[in-house]
Amino acid sequence: MFHLKLLFRNATGFKHVPLLAVRQFGSHSKEKLQRVLIVSKLTRLEFEKIREQQLSDECLERKIRDRGTDYDALKYYHHLHKDVEDKVVRSFQEQGIEVQVVNRITIGKDALQWADLIVPIGGDGTFLLAAGRASPFFLANGKRTPVVGFNSDPRRSEGRLMLPKQYSSQVDEAVRRIITNEFRWMHRSRIRTTLIGAAATARPSPMDLHEYHSQPIEHKEVMSPARNGQSRILPYLALNEVFIGEMLSARVSHLHLRIDNSETVTKTKSSGLCVSTGTGSTSWLTSMNRLSTNNVQDLLDIVRKRTGAGVLDTIDASSVSDEYNDNLVFPPHDPRLCYSIREQICVGVWPNPKGLESRGFAKEIYVKSRCIDASLVIDGSIAYNFNDGARALLEVYPEDSLLTIDMDD
Questions:
Q1: Which PANTHER family match (predicted)?
Q2: What is the mean pLDDT of the chain?
Q3: How many whole angstroms from its chain centre is CA 47?
C-alpha cells in the first residue's frame, strides 16, 4: 500500500501562506477596486511580427501572402481584438482604476501580485493562461485574485469561461456591474499536481506549448529545491484538465494508476490519461467520450435484432446522443476529478489487473510513468517531462479554487 499522505506532509517548494480574504468590490475606500491587470490575447499578426522582427511591415505582408496565408484576415481579426481591448481599458480607466496590459510573453509575477482583478481578453485559451498564472502557488503569497474575462471575438470563439457574449459589445455595462457588485461569485475547482520522489528532486523545467509561443517557462523564484525522496507541488493549478501521455500520439502510453485509497495499482496501455475538472468537462473530456448519433443508431439496431420490433422503433437516436453527451458534463465547483483513459487497450493481459473502467470519478489519482518521451500537460499549455519512473498525485482542494464571477442573468 502507498502511504502517500505521510510523504506529502513533507511537500516542499512553497511556504504555507494563509489565503487572504476575498475582495468585495464596493464603494468603501478600503474595498474599492483600484488595480486591474489586462491579459491580452497574443494575436497571430503580433506573433508574426515578433517572429520576423527584422522585416518591415511591407516585407512581412509579402512573406505572409507568398505562403498562401490570408493577410487581410489576420489584420482584420487583430484589429477586432484590439478594439475590444481598448474599450475594456478605457472603461476601467474612466472609473478611476489603474490599468496594466500584458500578453502571453510579457506577463510576469510582479504584475499579477499588483492586481486586484485579472481580466483576460481573447478566448478560453487566454482565460486559461491568466488563471494558471493566478495560482496562489505561482504567486507564492496566498492571494486569491478574481479572474473575469471578455470574449474579443464571440462570432468565432465559444468563450465558455468568459462573460456572456453580449458584454463583448456592452463593455461599459459589464465594468459597471463589476464595480457595483451586481454579479454572483463563482468558484471553479482546480487540480493540484504533486510530483513525488526523483521527479521532484531536480527543479522541473516546464515548456509553454502554445501554438504561437513555444519556449521554456522561467519560474525559479517560485520553485525551491526539494530533497531526495520528498514531493513538490507544481506552481500551476489546472482549471480544465491534466493530460499525461507520450508526446508522439502514435506511441502507446504505458501508465500505472491508483484511484483514491485503493491498494490496487493498475497497469494500463492507452493513448494517454485525461483528468478533468467540472470546468474542463465541457471541453476535452466530452470530446474524448461523446457518442455520435451514428454510434447510438448502431446500438439501437443491434438491440432491435435481439428484441424484435417494439418501443425501440420510437426512440430518436439524436436525442439519446444529446442526452448522453450532456451527462458527461458536471458542475465547475464539483470537488471530484473525472478521469478518462483515452483509447485504453483492453485485450489480452491489459489492463492488469482487470476491472478499472476507462472513465470514472475520483478524489485523488496516483500516476506512475513507464513512458519513453511523455509529458504532464496542464490545461493544454504548460508541459513537464514525465518519463519512466516519474510519479504524481492529482487532487482537488477547496482553497485552490479559482474565484470568478457569473453575470449570466
A1: NAD KINASE 2, MITOCHONDRIAL, PTHR13158
A2: 87
A3: 22
